[in-house]
What does this fold into?
Amino acid sequence: MKRLLLFVLVLVFTFNITIAAAQNTLTAPAEAPAKASTKASQTVKIKKSVKKTHVAKVKKHKIHHKTHKTETKETLAAQPEALAEDPAFTKAAADMPGAQNQCSETRVIAAVKESSALKSWQNIYDSYRKYQQCDDGAIAEGYSDLITGLMANNWDTLKDLKMFTETDKKFLKFVLRHIDASVDPEDVKKVSDNASQHCAADFSELCSLIKERAEEILKELNN
It folds into this structure.
């Protein structure tokens, strides 16, 4: 009798263990997709948050650029004499040997007055030759707007730029330096696209330098 009772208890115990194992097998796959779904949902939320932050930063930069650009134009048009007294210009002159290289008050005023007439690479090159010592502050930002604007919206004039940069490598450095973070990010993007997609074979070296510089600035703006 005792042996029979012991045998029954062993059977009951074995049956309970089998049932428990089956239940775990059935519930485990259901828990795994639930965890995967939660993780995927969190990833989507993070991506949306990052994208939203990036869009906000770009919008903020555009608003800042538009406001700053307006203020710069107003200053250039209305206060050339005030710009001449800006320490930024005299600092640039202090590092230049020879009186002919100094950024004098007369040069600043002349550069400001001529800035509104700069419409082509010939104009910009002539201005650069005369006033490169004054390439700072509002005048420098004016050059940046003009240079980036020409590359973004008048890419077919690149042949003129190529002509000047082939004979004057310092002018090439000047041009590349003025593709900078002070201008509209959309213009910088256009410059990068033009250099990538609309470049003739004999312009490849110049396009490569322009593209490299534009992408460098885009990374800076996106950080």
Q: What stands out?
A: The chain is about 80% helix and 0% strand. Residues 45 and 172 are 45 Å apart (CA to CA). The mean pLDDT is 74.
